[in-house]
Structures are given as structure tokens and as C-alpha cells.
């Protein structure tokens, strides 16, 4: 359909239309005349359609009202009155993405689907949720998702419960989470960014139902909304649905969601704040120091992208001069940068971790001197070229892994659109890059340094100091506060809270009626593709080596994987595989020093990376194969350069650069610590698996807690171990870089394959072909049942075992049980009633079945919920409609869209594990034929599974010690 400027389509007036080569499509800006809603449509041939609606939501306090609202609007609405339409959609929709996000100044609701009918259904549920939510007159929704006093007996202590309350207690347990929150505080003392939009646990209980409803009424109006549509959908039909069912019911009003500009500071502010560490932890050199700047506004379109690139130039590559200056001075063990471009006034931070707080002045002096020298002498041209190229590659590729492209574009457009600038600004990045490349020849980045860093007084220096007593002090203050609140309550007030608690639990445990459930839109089984999608990887031979080829459109990008057999590495050297993977590409080679090598990689490729991987057998938990993997991506015309650099790295890396090796070991340790608290549920899953599986025990050696302990020892005793480290890295490299049993994988069209074919000898020529002396890896296993203590305020509670060890076999029907347990039983028991943020279910082809709660205020109660699961399965009974919903949910998980790089990896994994297309189809057939009788038949198996009692808890040390009888070992996570 042809659209014309200034014409009105279903109430939407077309304001502007452009061809956008960056998305290979057309962009259109619409304004809904009656309601005032804005709409930005990006139409191309992508069948993974995306819809988002966002609202500008500035705050005046840290009660977390936009975050709690983000959760709560999805708890039922006028048209879709079930308690959790969001969960109903996850269970029974073919969505490829379904979520909601709270940002410092906006709240966003995205959905995606490849199925046209499903996409319209998802749009309808989300639009009804944001405009007509049940939270307006159902106070239990805010109580459940936000916070409430909980007490069922007046003799019990009063407590706080709530999903967001516990989520943010977990978020505030991370030192980096505290740091980034406080950075905003120091830079924006007079605006919305001073406050925590996600909610500070200290202030969340100040939110009342009245303020909650008023916030929704004020900001969730179409004239304060920003709607995006993306993909190959029928735009006319989509506009008609949005207008007919929703927007035509609203009249334009004046919503004041204006975000004030923070007036520049006349001088840098200096702030010191504490963060919690364990009482037994060594607090020496555990401070974090951050130098922060406000860098213009979103009106500075080119500089916005320029500052993002400058952050890479200064701080993110092995050749980055500011990072290297700080590391050389020994200021800290890790240095990194952060550019936050998603707010009205972007911020730039230079962060040093694991340092002495008394070195703050020295830190600031080195930063200023280094920046001044760069302005005076100029930045290395190769470094600039590399970082600009790397940014351009990422923008062009737009590979969000499991994030749909349309969502990435929607987020990008809001970086300007939300602040009354054009939504095209950051979608049309080609012109910005052209201007930046031309400017780079004339000192553009040096001028950015001068303007936004050296001459900028709107800045702060923030020091986070470790405090061993802070966690206990906060716990004590919270208990005293709640005790005082209870003591000051009248009998009537106490009775009312008890009644509210009982009423909430009754609502949570009362199932939706069949009439309510029937209102949730549901596809039929006929809408499901019965045939499993095939990842068509074909086997070819190049230079005498096996090549797996995925014929896929990649927009003239080559995706390349080399999988080396690492099974000859001796058992005691296994952890060095991961150390090696982190060092390669960062150390000097025979041809280039590390600065030059970093620049060459960035100039010629999207990236080159390495990893130590293991692949579990689908038949036996103790059988697995190991690979050392080299990955790269490059434009087709740069394939030769990429393969040449790879060959250089694997054949001539120098392992005698001890200062750099120690720097990277410290950096690796620091980065693991950053991710450990937020990903503790995944760590717990892998940890428990290692109790009964040799394959998982191997994985612990290269990526888990065992590996973290290993690198902590290397860091602590580096001077005594450096020669040993050098020898071991050389030994491991020589062992794995072997032509024997090498598998090459390539994704692209024939032009990309030909580019690899013509140049693969660059790699094979530097490899010897040696016989592989396969090592037998056996590890000490057993029911370790560890309590792993961290400074966190919440727990990550995991229980897991393998059904094949109990005599059962994997079937695709278990994937339907996964949906049922994850989105009914565990969602209701662990999240809704227990207050945890979530509880993922893990089920693998090899028979591992596990559960891990996330940001959970409970410990023993959650383990009991796992143990009672079999009873739920035993009594499972639903009608045909509900069963269809669960089956659709399982199929959705099987059919998630994959980017070319993800699809290539999936094809490689299937090849290594021996998973055929027939097996994939059989799994799908089993999913589609699942009955409620099948689900009930799993009851006994799950009972035996939990009775094996393999478990691990990562979390609050006090909570773990209060339940010490549950554990065979209690250990500290951080060294």
C-alpha cells in the first residue's frame, strides 16, 4: 500500500516518510490526531515483526513506581481479566519476544512474533494492559508486585514482601549496581535522574496505592506514548487495529512529562559512599573510583555516537591509552569505561576497580595528564580507525542475539524521539559515521576530549569504599524499623494487615475462571507448523579439512568458527584453556605488538574471540567432548585479513609479556566478579550439575566457581607462578592448535564461502597434524550440597539431578512439563507467593532437570516447593484449551528466531553431539502429541528426582548460616 504525506490512515496522519538504507526499508512518522499518540513505523522484509509502546515516565522519588507499574499493568486488564495475561501469553503464544523494561526516564513494552495472527493478539493484550489495567481498583496487584507488609499471626515479626522489592534488594547487592546508581545521583542533583526509577529498597515501602494509581493516570495516556512497528506486517491493518480498539477512545490532553535539564556544575563534586562486603573478606584494595561527566544532550547527534566510540578508544581495547596509563601506574586491577547515551543528558565514566581509596587524587591526575597529552599529540590514527570500524560493523550487523532487530531499532530511536528530536536520528547512522570519519582526520576525537572531559566542570568523582559491617547494620536497622512500626500499630491496624495478607494469598492461590481464561487470545494447534525447521548445514572439504557450511543471507558478512579438539590437554592444565582463550588476541605476536594487533583486529574484523567449550553427550552425563573454539566475523572483502590475523594469533602469540598477562588475569577475575551476583542462578545450576556429572565438572574448571578460585590464586601468587603460567600457556596452545580433528564452520552465501575457501590455507598452513592423545577426565563427584555465601541480600536456590541416572529417558513431552512447571507451579509458588523475581527450569536432552530461583528472599521454603512439585503433577488436570496453550508455549521455545551467528553455532553443536534432523522432528512430534496423562505420568519421576537431594544455594551469608543443617559445605564465593 502506498502512503502519502499529510494523508490520514485510521486516525493516523502521516508526517514524514523516508527510505532508510540502514534497515533496507522505509521509515514513517505518524501522529494520531484524536489521541495525540506518536507512531514510528519501520517496514522491511523481516518476518520477525516487533511492536513496542513506551511512555515518558520521570520520577520525583525512589519508590520505584514506574518499575512496579511495569510489572503491574501486565496483571490483568478490562478486556483480558486473568491475574497474569503476561504469563498466559508466554505459555500460549508463538511470540519470539515478550517483556517489559524500566529505564531511568521511560517505560517500554515490547512484543514480537513471526505469526501475523499472533502478532495482532499480542498487540491487543499489551495495549489493553497499558491503557486499562486492573491495578486501578485491585490493590493486591501493587501489594504483590511492589511491596506489602506481611504477617499472618500477630505474634510473628512484621516483614516486607514484594517482587520488585526483592528484585531491587538483589540489584543493590552488586557493587557495580550501587556504583552506577550513585553516579547518576552525583551528576543530577536537581532532576529525575537523581532518583532510582527501579526503586531503592529503602524507599519502596513509601509508595501508596493512591500515588501508584495516580502515576498511571498521569503518564499512561496515548499523548505521552511512543509506538513503534517493525517488519513485514500489514501496516494498514495494524494502524486500523490500534485506532479502532484503543486510540479512538481517547482525546488529546496535556501531559506534563517534561524532563528538566540539569544545569551544569561550576566545579567537580567529590562523593564517598560505602558498599557491603562480607565480614571475613579482606578489604584491602577493594575500593572503586569513578570519574564521571555529563556530556552534552541528545541534541548533539553526532557527538552522541562520537562519545560512544571515544569510550572504546580510551578504555575498551588492549591499545586504549587511558586504560593502559592507569594500569601501568598500578592504580587498580581493572579499568573500564561506561557511556550512558540512553538519557536526556548522556554521561561518560572512567572506572577503576580494586583500588585503594587513598589513590583518588593520583587517579584523577593520571586521567587529566593522559587526556591532555592525547589532545596535544593526537590519538593513534590506527586506534581511531579500528574503533570507528568496530562500531560501524556492530551497527550494520545489528545482532542482538536473541533480541529482535526491531527491538534494537525501537530502543535506538527513543534515544532521540523521547526528547522531542527526530526518531530517524540514530536509525540513519550512515551520515553520522561519515561525518565522524571525516572529522577524525581533523582532530574530532581530540576536540571531544577537550570539550566534554578536560574543560567540563559538570563532573563528579565517586569513591565506593568497602564496609564489612554495612550488610549487618542494614539488616539490623530494617528489623528495628519493622519492629517499631508494628509496636506503634493499634490492634485494628494489625488485624487489617493480617486480613490484607490473607486476602492477597487467597487471590494468589485462586485460579482464574474458565470464562476469564477464554478471553486470552489463543492460536489453535492448526496454527503450529508441524515440521521442525531444519538448520541446513552441509559438509564440505577445503584444504583437506572438514567444513560445515550454512547457506544463509548474512548481508555480506562472513561468520567463521574453527573448533579444535582439546581432549589431549592434561587434566591439571584444563583451567589454562580458559586463561588462554582470554589472552589470545590481546598479547603481542611475532608480527605485531599488542597495540598494533588490537588495532588490526578492529580495522579488519567485527571481532575475533576464543573460548574453551565442552559438549555433553545426549546419552550419558559422564561422556562429553571438549573443544577450543576460535570465532570471527568480518565483511566478505576482509576475509583474507581476518584469517591471516587468526593464523598469526594461534601460531606466534608471545606468552612472556608478564605484565600484560597479570593485567588480563586481574581483569578476568574482576569481570567474573561483576557477573557472578547477577548470574548466580546460572552458576548454581552448573555447580549442582558438577556434583553428579563429569562433563559439568569439566565446565566448572573452565568457567565456573572452580575456575574463579583458580584465577584468584594465579592473581595472588603471580610473581612466583609467572614462569609456570608461561610454560603452561605455551603447552596448552601447542596441544590444541592441531589440524587433526579440526572442524571449520562457515555461514554466508556462496560468495562468503568462496572467500573462506580461497584463504583457509592461511590457517591450515600454520598447523601441524599430530596424533591426539585423548585424556580420560574423571572428577571427584558427590553430594556436596554447598551453601555459597555472598554479600547479597537475596538467594539463588537450585536443586537438580539427571533422570537417566534414575532409569528414565528424555522425551520432548518434558518440554511441555517445563512450560507447565515454570509458568504455573513455580511462577505462582516461588514468584507470586514467595516474592522471588523468577525461577527458571532447565531440561536438557541429556536428562538434566533443574530449578533455580532468582533474587529469592526465601531459602528453605523454596526447597520445599521443589520437593512438593510431584504432587502438583500427580493432580494435574486441565481442559483441551489449556493443554493447547502449554503445547504452543513449548513450540515457541523450539522455534525462537536465530541470527546467522547463533544458527551456525546451533548447527555445529548438533553436529558435535550427533543430533540429527530426525531426532529434532521426533522431539517436536512428542511435544505436539503431549496429553495431560503424559504430564501426570511424570509425577513419580520428579518425586525421585527431588529425593536425590542434589542442591546448592548462593546468597546471603546470614540466611545460609541460619539454615546450616541443609548443607554439607558452606564456603565463601569471593576470594
From TrEMBL:
Parts forming coiled coils: none
Biological-process GO terms, alphabetical: protein processing
Domain Peptidase M16C associated residues, every copy: 464-714
GO MF annotation: an example: metal ion binding
InterPro entries: Metalloenz_LuxS/M16 (IPR011249), Pept_M16_N (IPR011765), Peptidase_M16_C (IPR007863), Peptidase_M16C_assoc (IPR013578), PreP_C (IPR055130)
Gene3D superfamilies: Metalloenzyme, LuxS/M16 peptidase-like
A Pfam family reported for this protein in Swiss-Prot or TrEMBL: Peptidase_M16_C
SMART domains referenced in this protein's UniProt entry, alphabetically: M16C_associated
Protein name, as recorded: Peptidase M16C associated domain-containing protein
Naturally occurring in which organism (per UniProt): Hathewaya proteolytica DSM 3090
Lineage: Bacteria, Bacillati, Bacillota, Clostridia, Eubacteriales
Amino acid at each position: 500500500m502506498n502512503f502519502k504525506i499529510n494523508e490520514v490512515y485510521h486516525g493516523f496522519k502521516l508526517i514524514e516518510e523516508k527510505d532508510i538504507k540502514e534497515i533496507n526499508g522505509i521509515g514513517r512518522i505518524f501522529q494520531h490526531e484524536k489521541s495525540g499518540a506518536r507512531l514510528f513505523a519501520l517496514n522491511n522484509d523481516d518476518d520477525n515483526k516487533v511492536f513496542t509502546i513506551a511512555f515518558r515516565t520521570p520520577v520525583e522519588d525512589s519508590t520505584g513506581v514506574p518499575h512496579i507499574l511495569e510489572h503491574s499493568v501486565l496483571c490483568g486488564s478490562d478486556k483480558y481479566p486473568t491475574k497474569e495475561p503476561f504469563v498466559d501469553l508466554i505459555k500460549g503464544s508463538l511470540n519470539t519476544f515478550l517483556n517489559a523494561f524500566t529505564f531511568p526516564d521511560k517505560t517500554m513494552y515490547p512484543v514480537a512474533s513471526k505469526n501475523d495472527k499472533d502478532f495482532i493478539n499480542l498487540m491487543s493484550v499489551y495495549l489493553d494492559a497499558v491503557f486499562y489495567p486492573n491495578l486501578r481498583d485491585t490493590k493486591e496487584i501493587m501489594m504483590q508486585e511492589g511491596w506489602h507488609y506481611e504477617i499472618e499471626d500477630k505474634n510473628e515479626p512484621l516483614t516486607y514482601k514484594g517482587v520488585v522489592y526483592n528484585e531491587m534488594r538483589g540489584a543493590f547487592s552488586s557493587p557495580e549496581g550501587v556504583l552506577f546508581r550513585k553516579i547518576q545521583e552525583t551528576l543530577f542533583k536537581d532532576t529525575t535522574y537523581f532518583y532510582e526509577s527501579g526503586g531503592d529498597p529503602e524507599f519502596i515501602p513509601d509508595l501508596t496505592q493512591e500515588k501508584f494509581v495516580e502515576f498511571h493516570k498521569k503518564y499512561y495516556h496515548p499523548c505521552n506514548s511512543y509506538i513503534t512497528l517493525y517488519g513485514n506486517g500489514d501496516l494498514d491493518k495494524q494502524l486500523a487495529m490500534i485506532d479502532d480498539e484503543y486510540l479512538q477512545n481517547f482525546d488529546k490532553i496535556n501531559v506534563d512529562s517534561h524532563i528538566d535539564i540539569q544545569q551544569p556544575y561550576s566545579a567537580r563534586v567529590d562523593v564517598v559512599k560505602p558498599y557491603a562486603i562480607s565480614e571475613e573478606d579482606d578489604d584491602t584494595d577493594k575500593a572503586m573510583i569513578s570519574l564521571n561527566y555529563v556530556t552534552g544532550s541528545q541534541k548533539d547527534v553526532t557527538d552522541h555516537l562520537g562519545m560512544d566510540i571515544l569510550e572504546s578508544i580510551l578504555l575498551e581495547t588492549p591499545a586504549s591509552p587511558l586504560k593502559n596509563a592507569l594500569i601501568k601506574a598500578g592504580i587498580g586491577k581493572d579499568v573500564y569505561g561506561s557511556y550512558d547515551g540512553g538519557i536526556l543528558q548522556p554521561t561518560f565514566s572512567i572506572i577503576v576497580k580494586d583500588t585503594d581509596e587513598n589513590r583518588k587524587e593520583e587517579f584523577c591526575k593520571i586521567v587529566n595528564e593522559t587526556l591532555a597529552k592525547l589532545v596535544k599529540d593526537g590519538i593513534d590514527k590506527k586506534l581511531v580507525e579500528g574503533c570507528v570500524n568496530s562500531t560501524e560493523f556492530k551497527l550494520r550487523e545489528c545482532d542482538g542475539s536473541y533480541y529482535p532487530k526491531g527491538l534494537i531499532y525501537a530502543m535506538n530511536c527513543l534515544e532521540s524521539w523521547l526528547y522531542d528530536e527526530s526518531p530517524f536520528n540514530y536509525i540513519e547512522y550512515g551520515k553520522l559515521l561519515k561525518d565522524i570519519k571525516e572529522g577524525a582526520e581533523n582532530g574530532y576525537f581530540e576536540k571531544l576530549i577537550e570539550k566534554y572531559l578536560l574543560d567540563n566542570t559538570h563532573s563528579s568523582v565517586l569513591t565506593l569504599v568497602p564496609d564489612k559491617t554495612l550488610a549487618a547494620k542494614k539488616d539490623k536497622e530494617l528489623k528495628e524499623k519493622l519492629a517499631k512500626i508494628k509496636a506503634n500499630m493499634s490492634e485494628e491496624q494489625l488485624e487489617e494487615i493480617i486480613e490484607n495478607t490473607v486476602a492477597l494469598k487467597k487471590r494468589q492461590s485462586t485460579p482464574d475462571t474458565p470464562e476469564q481464561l477464554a478471553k486470552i487470545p489463543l492460536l489453535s494447534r492448526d496454527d503450529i507448523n508441524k515440521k521442525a525447521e531444519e538448520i541446513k548445514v552441509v559438509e564440505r572439504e577445503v584444504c583437506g579439512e572438514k567444513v560445515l557450511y550454512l547457506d544463509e543471507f548474512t548481508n555480506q558478512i562472513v561468520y567463521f568458527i574453527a573448533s579444535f579438539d582439546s581432549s589431549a590437554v592434561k587434566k591439571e592444565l584444563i583451567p589454562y584453556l580458559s586463561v588462554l582463550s582470554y589472552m589470545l588476541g590481546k598479547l603481542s605476536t611475532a608480527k605485531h605488538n599488542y597495540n598494533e594487533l588490537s588495532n588490526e583486529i578492529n580495522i579488519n574484523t567485527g571481532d575475533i574471540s576464543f573460548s574453551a567449550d565442552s559438549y555433553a553427550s545426549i546419552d550419558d552425563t559422564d561422556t562429553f567432548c571438549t573443544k577450543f573454539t576460535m570465532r570471527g566475523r568480518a565483511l566478505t572483502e576482509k576475509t583474507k585479513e581476518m584469517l591471516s590475523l587468526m593464523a598469526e594469533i594461534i601460531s606466534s602469540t608471545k606468552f612472556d609479556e608478564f605484565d600484560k598477562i597479570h593485567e588480563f588475569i586481574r581483569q578476568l577475575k574482576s569481570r567474573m566478579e561483576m557477573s557472578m551476583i547477577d548470574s548466580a542462578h546460572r552458576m548454581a545450576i552448573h555447580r549442582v550439575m558438577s556434583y553428579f556429572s563429569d562433563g559439568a565438572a569439566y565446565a566448572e574448571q573452565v568457567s565456573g566457581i572452580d575456575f574463579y578460585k583458580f584465577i584468584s590464586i594465579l592473581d595472588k601468587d603471580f610473581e612466583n607462578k609467572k614462569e609456570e603460567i608461561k610454560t603452561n600457556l605455551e603447552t596448552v596452545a601447542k596441544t590444541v592448535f592441531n589440524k587433526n580433528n579440526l572442524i571449520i564452520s562457515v555461514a554466508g552465501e556462496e560468495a562468503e564461502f568462496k572467500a573462506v575457501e580461497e584463504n583457509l590455507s592461511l590457517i591450515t598452513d600454520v598447523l601441524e597434524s599430530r596424533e591426539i592423545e585423548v585424556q580420560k577426565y574423571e572428577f571427584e563427584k558427590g553430594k556436596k550440597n554447598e551453601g555459597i555465601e555472598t554479600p547479597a541480600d537475596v538467594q539463588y536456590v537450585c536443586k537438580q539431578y539427571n533422570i537417566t541416572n534414575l532409569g528414565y529417558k528424555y522425551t520432548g513431552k518434558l518440554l511441555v512439563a517445563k512450560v507447565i512447571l515454570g509458568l504455573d507451579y513455580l511462577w505462582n509458588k516461588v514468584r507470586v507467593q514467595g516474592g522471588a523475581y523468577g525461577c527458571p527450569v532447565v531440561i536438557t536432552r541429556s536428562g538434566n532437570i533443574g530449578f533455580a530461583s532468582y533474587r529469592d528472599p526465601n531459602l528453605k521454603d523454596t526447597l520445599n516447593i521443589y520437593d512438593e512439585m510431584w504432587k502438583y503433577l500427580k493432580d494435574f488436570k486441565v481442559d483441551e484449551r489449556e493443554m493447547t496453550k502449554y503445547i504452543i508455549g513449548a513450540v515457541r521455545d523450539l522455534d525462537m528466531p536465530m541470527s546467522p551467528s547463533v544458527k551456525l553455532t546451533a548447527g555445529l553443536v548438533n553436529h558435535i553431539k550427533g543430533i540429527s534432523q530426525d531426532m529434532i522432528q521426533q522431539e517436536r512430534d512428542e511435544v505436539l502429541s503431549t496429553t495431560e496423562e503424559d504430564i501426570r505420568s511424570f509425577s513419580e519421576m520428579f518425586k525421585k528426582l527431588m529425593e536425590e537431594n542434589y542442591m546448592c544455594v548462593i546468597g546471603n551469608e546470614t540466611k545460609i548460616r541460619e539454615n546450616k543443617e541443609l548443607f554439607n559445605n558452606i564456603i565463601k564465593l569471593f576470594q
